[in-house]
Amino acid sequence: MASLLNELPSFSTLLAAYGSLTAMAMLIRTILNEIIPKPVQKFIYSKFSGLITNYFSSNFTFIIEDRWQAVYNETYRAIEVYLPTRIDPSTDKLLVGSNDPNNPTAPLKQNIPADSKIIDEFEGMTLEWTLHVRESDKCFIPDKKCFHLTCKKTVRDLVEQRYFPHIAKMAETILSKRENLNIYTYNQERSRWESAVFKHPATFETLAMEPKLKQSIMDDLDSFMGRKDFFENVGRAWKRGYLLYGPPGTGKSSLVAAIANYMSYNIYDLQFQSVRNDADLRRILTSTTNRSILLIEDIDCSRKISIDRVKVKDKQEKEGDSVDPGVTLSGLLNFIDGLWSSCGNERLIIFTTNHKEKLDPALLRPGRMDVHIHMGYCTPAVFRKLATTYLGIKDNKLFGCIDDLIKNVEVTPAEVAQQLMIKSDDPEAAIQGFIEFLNMKKDEVGEDVIQEEEAKDTKEMKDGKQSKKHDETETGSIYLT
Ligand SMILES: Nc1ncnc2c1ncn2[C@@H]1O[C@H](COP(=O)(O)OP(=O)(O)OP(=O)(O)O)[C@@H](O)[C@H]1O
């Protein structure tokens, strides 16, 4: 032991060695500082420290962004639905609010604010969630959102195999039990869909329509709903396109509401003015969810979509490739029945128009919109349904007289409803008032016009053609392409 102590360097020798080493290190550091630029030093340091932290850290982080390549990320969507159900009382921050204008006292909805932590427990694992939002500096590019899920490295596989499928399943259950439907509108400034609670009272029960027409629409919807295998087997995208056309006030919007209520689908109401171009349209459409209705109302009024495609092409040729054609019909059709149509399942696409004749023929080609539904003027059957709804009566001695008048006067269900509502507490007076209204309308149109119509109808009958007024304009019809 004594000899070992003798062999150890003395304290002064150690001190001297330490001094020289320190001086050498400082010299090397000064030389490196001189030679290596600061940004490179920083980079090397961050990589080095990152490696050390990763090596020694026992945590693993999954990052789930809102979009996955070209489409909305379904995993992100499931987390968005599931996570608010895991908010516990210890949370120190919460987003709260309501989007139900019909019910201001409805229970507050809760959501997760950016950068705050949510802890979830699953099968003995502790999982820490944070929502990160990166604000976009360009108004037409949406903010980037992502969830970070941090867990122990040791349970990473378990999280992938058990926890994520659990979230997907839970989200589906939550969505299937949702009490309210939503209606979405696209906010161009914030580049995102924004929702409000959709509580429209229209149902197939309240809708006044020719019974056969109504039944055939319901049958068509039934044969669409829940038939994933059928659509797969016949090689079609699980989508259905409806074109509703007819004069204003014949119930096109009411039918859309009735369909949404019948199917329990949310509505995405798209105004073409808020779409810049086809790329924008594709991004907007791929951000909609399954089991929903994409509604484009008054499609004939969309200046952009009805731009003559030949004119755009001419302009492009004249002014070079820089001309942005905006939204083109082909861009829209590509989503309806082109290659992009297979993105998403169980979707209805509904266009409405007051002027079918103004639509681009490409949209009307067989197979494009699967079903064309004509919403026509009031018929005796439609009147009776409205009388039952608004006056609570199924029959009246004056109904025969109304039937005769209705066959000769173009009156919309909206007009009928309005008239009947005036005296809904006194059915007799309401019926009398309605007859007066019909007579007034008849006089306005003028006897000679009616005679002209009748002469035309008779001629068409003689020629073997069907009367347009009775076939389409009045009664409504359904046409499967
Ligand atoms: N077929 C109908 N059955 C019951 N109510 C109807 C019907 N058609 C119209 N109405 C009543 O008239 C109102 C207006 O109808 P709606 O907005 O559905 O017509 P529209 O065809 O969509 O009109 P527009 O083309 O102007 O948008 C509705 O709120 C509803 O009360």
TrEMBL record:
Record-linked CDD domains: RecA-like_BCS1
The highest taxon in the source lineage is Eukaryota
Recorded hits in PROSITE patterns, A to Z, give: AAA
**Name used for this protein in its record:** AAA-ATPase At1g43910-like
Please name the GO terms of the biological process aspect recorded for this protein, alphabetically. response to stress
Domain AAA+ ATPase: from-to ranges: 238-379
| InterPro entries from the UniProt entry | AAA+_ATPase, AAA_N_dom, At3g28540-like_C, ATPase_AAA_core, ATPase_AAA_CS, Mitochondrial_chaperone_BCS1, P-loop_NTPase
Task: Offer one Pfam family short name for this entry.
Answer: AAA_lid_At3g28540
Cofactors: Mg(2+)
Keyword Cytoplasm among record annotations: no
Ranges for region Disordered: 448-481
Catalytic activity field: ATP + H2O = ADP + phosphate + H(+)
Report the sequence similarity comment from the record.
Answer: Belongs to the AAA ATPase family. BCS1 subfamily.
Sorted UniProt keywords: ATP-binding, Hydrolase, Magnesium, Nucleotide-binding
Instruction: Name the species this protein comes from.
Output: Durio zibethinus (Durian)
Query: According to the UniProt entry, which residue ranges have a biased composition of type Basic and acidic residues?
Result: 456-473
- A GO molecular-function term, please? ATP hydrolysis activity
Query: Record keywords: ATP-binding included?
Result: yes
